[in-house]
């Protein structure tokens, strides 16, 4: 994690909402009224179970899917208000590393062509300078420049993810969405890729949104954490503070399911029970109430506001004071 000198947010997300229309005209409430900031040169973790809306939120910020409403103020400009043609200029500054390192790479292209497509956006001419830049990018992510002539199927999952990272870096972005970039990798390889992302973030001064379902991964890499459940923010704040004193029952439940390297260490939180409800018909009031061990009748009546607890710690729970 970094210690940035500039507290100015590079990205401010306000009221991000994304609804899809499903079969029969049913509305899928994928993301509801999500707000958070990401300061320059820091990494924010966006965590939650599968179906929590975190990937949709990340892709909406990049406008890979169009948000239904809200704002995303990036370096002073609301990119949600830009026309499609205007967005093209900003895509050089906003990049993504996908979850599946194989399906995100064109199997018919050599690595030099895959990275070269990104270099086209930077106006790199073909020839010696382009080959040098591709070699630099491969070296930057810990791969041999000789790999540029190979095809994606000739690499391991971890190597393919490194290639995906090199492609994202080719346009020299300011901001990267890393969408569960290690979840498809073997445990032994995950640490290597996480270390690489941490080094790149520090050395290049990148700002990142790191999407994950594993809180232990987020604790290692991220300066701040945003916890989502069924499309809504449950808790957000500095990673150390949220991990040391979680103030939402859902955050506590996620911590209880996270791997603990010390077998003698006792868990202090109750593990999460049951399944996440359908986003087509979310529960009234607090969306977590149907699985919450602390739920009371009032939880079904009102959507809890995101309250400020001090510092940059916020929580959406009417009973947070009892935790």
Automatic annotation (TrEMBL):
It comes from the Bacteria. GO terms for cellular component: plasma membrane. Transmembrane segments: none annotated. The keyword Transport applies. It is found in: Cell inner membrane. PROSITE patterns: ABC_TRANSPORTER_1, ABC_TRANSPORTER_2. GO terms for biological process: peptide transport; transmembrane transport. InterPro entries: AAA+_ATPase, ABC_transp_ATP-bind, ABC_transporter-like_ATP-bd, ABC_transporter-like_CS, Oligopep_ABC_C, P-loop_NTPase. SMART domains: AAA. PANTHER family: D,D-DIPEPTIDE TRANSPORT ATP-BINDING PROTEIN DDPF-RELATED, TRANSPORT ATP-BINDING PROTEIN. Belongs to the ABC transporter superfamily. This is Peptide ABC transporter ATP-binding protein. It comes from Devosia psychrophila.
């Amino acid at each position: 994690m970094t210690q940035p000198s500039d507290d100015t947010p590079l990205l401010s997300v306000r009221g991000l909402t994304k609804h899809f229309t499903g079969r029969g005209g049913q509305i899928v409430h994928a993301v509801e009224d999500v707000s958070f900031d990401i300061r320059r040169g820091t990494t924010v973790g966006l965590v939650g179970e599968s179906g929590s809306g975190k990937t949709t939120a990340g892709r909406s910020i990049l406008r890979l899917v169009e948000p239904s409403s809200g704002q995303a103020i990036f370096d002073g400009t609301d990119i949600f208000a830009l026309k499609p043609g205007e967005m093209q200029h900003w895509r050089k500054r906003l990049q993504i590393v996908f979850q599946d390192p194989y399906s995100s790479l064109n199997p018919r292209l050599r690595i030099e062509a895959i990275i070269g497509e990104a270099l086209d956006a930077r106006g790199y001419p073909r020839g010696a300078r382009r080959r040098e830049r591709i070699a630099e990018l491969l070296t930057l992510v810990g791969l041999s420049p000789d790999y540029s002539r190979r095809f994606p199927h000739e690499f391991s999952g971890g190597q393919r993810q490194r290639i995906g990272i090199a492609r994202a870096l080719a346009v020299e972005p300011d901001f990267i969405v890393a969408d569960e970039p290690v979840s498809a990798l073997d445990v032994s390889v995950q640490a290597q890729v996480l270390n690489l992302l941490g080094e790149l973030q520090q050395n290049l001064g990148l700002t990142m949104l790191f999407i994950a379902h594993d809180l232990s991964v987020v604790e290692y890499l991220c300066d701040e954490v945003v916890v989502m459940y069924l499309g809504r923010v449950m808790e957000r704040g500095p990673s150390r503070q949220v991990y040391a004193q979680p103030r939402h029952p859902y955050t506590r439940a996620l911590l209880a399911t996270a791997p603990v390297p010390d077998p003698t260490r006792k868990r202090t939180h109750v593990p999460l029970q049951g399944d996440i409800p359908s986003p087509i018909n979310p529960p009234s009031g607090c969306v977590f109430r149907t699985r919450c061990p602390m739920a009371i009748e009032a939880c079904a009546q009102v959507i809890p506001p995101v309250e400020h607890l001090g510092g940059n710690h916020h929580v959406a729970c009417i009973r947070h004071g009892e935790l």
